[in-house]
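Ticket #4471: complex job returned nothing on first submit. Input attached below:
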Amino acid sequence: MTKTYITTAIPYMNGNPHIGHAVDYCLADVYARYRRACGDEVRLQAGADEHGNKIYQKAMELGLPIEEYVDKNSKVFKDFIGKLGVEYTDYVRTTDKSHEERVQKIWQKLEEHIYKADYEGWYCTGCERYITQKEYDENGGICPDHQKPYEKLQGENYYLRIADFKDRIRQAIETDEMLILPDFRKKEVLRLLEESPDVSISRPTSQLTWGVPVPGDDSQVMYVWIDALSNYLTVIGYPDDDSYEEWWPATAQFVGKDILRFHAIIWPAMLIGLGLPLPKTLVSHGMVLANGQKMSKSIGNVVEPLEVLGKYGQDAFRYFFLRHVDTFADSDFTWEKYDAAYNNELANDLGNLVQRLATLANKNQIVVDGDTRGFSEEYKKLMDAFEFSKAFDCVWDKIQALNKRIDEEKPWSLAKNGEREKLESCLGGLIRDLLQANYELTPFLPEASGKIFEVFSGEIEPPKMPLFPKDR
Ligand code: MSP
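Support reply: We reran it on our side without changes. The output follows.
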């Protein structure tokens, strides 16, 4: 059995779940469900990024003990992932003892590529990222994403010698050994790689205490990204438990485009330093915007995912963010678009189709046999290329075509005229094709597709409640 390991970015635990987090989870879950349906044994990781100044400062602001604060937030996130219908197999918190110990071992294994030196430069705590002088100048000293002046950092710290790995990383990207999707991001990453200096990977405890201590040096804690990136390995047992070898390299790692740079430079550098293979694919998705703008607390246009989920439930949420949010490009969320997608597409196209076919079959005592089902070639091709929103479109085309076919073939007239044989073949054909499309829906809409299969198995009964009720 093929073993497939899929990962999601671990969100910072400094607030509530964000729409963007849901995108990571849903994409990875669709792929996991698809691979499972193809017969693979799948592991899907999720987790919580709990260290660093950003989280520490937030807890201080709220006057909460930091442990209590991250405990509370990671519970909220776990619950949120469940509400999305995401079936993860592994969950890691970067404050887990086992994770911290393993990260320290990872550090020790990288020691020949680590050196200590003075640092002086800029940092944005909001981004948890070091800023080059060039970027500082371009942005006039203020982070465009957080609207805060960059901080000046000074002091001794440890560096990871990126220079040791550049040639190897470039080659892996250029040859698609580590495939970067979408393709147009490759050039951008290669440019960043060329410009990348050695990376500072620790901070003196005088500046940061909330992190994993550097082994053998009490005066330093690790840079949060070294700790966070390691989660993909520690959660599968690395380096203590050899079974990680069955799962690594990851088949696909899902990240937003804003954090691709960490995953395409620091992460492969760490892996090469550890003598491990590189992930097969880095899938970087676009950003969800609100009314065409970046969501931000200061603009006051943040869309709360729990509110969106609360309106029509899980299927509607997954439907919108997997079909109307393009897998790779930036996309816009508005409540108008959301309501329209729910009412016109889920309720009308799919809900009514199920209701009509089930009612006709029930009335005319039609039964369909449980055919073995599979994915169409077109669908597989798109799913294998991680073009999920396009694959979803192609399933939806089939659903709309079925609606058209009912209107053209008019099974109710066949029933009225007593044309039993024709009626059986017409309705049987429509239902079989619906179930075939429904099979392709399962990775996207696991709840709804489960209900649809149930409606048409054995004696067909129309759902008592519409699948997607409109009067909410
Ligand atoms: N903690 C790091 C990730 C460490 S992974 C080893 C981090 N956390 S985050 O909370 O800021 O972001 C988590 C994920 O959510 C990232 O993949 C990010 O791209 C995604 N999104 C956050 N906002 C987003 C949108 N508005 N739209 C789509 N995804 C975005 O980065």
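The chain is about 50% helix and 15% strand. Closing as resolved unless it happens again.
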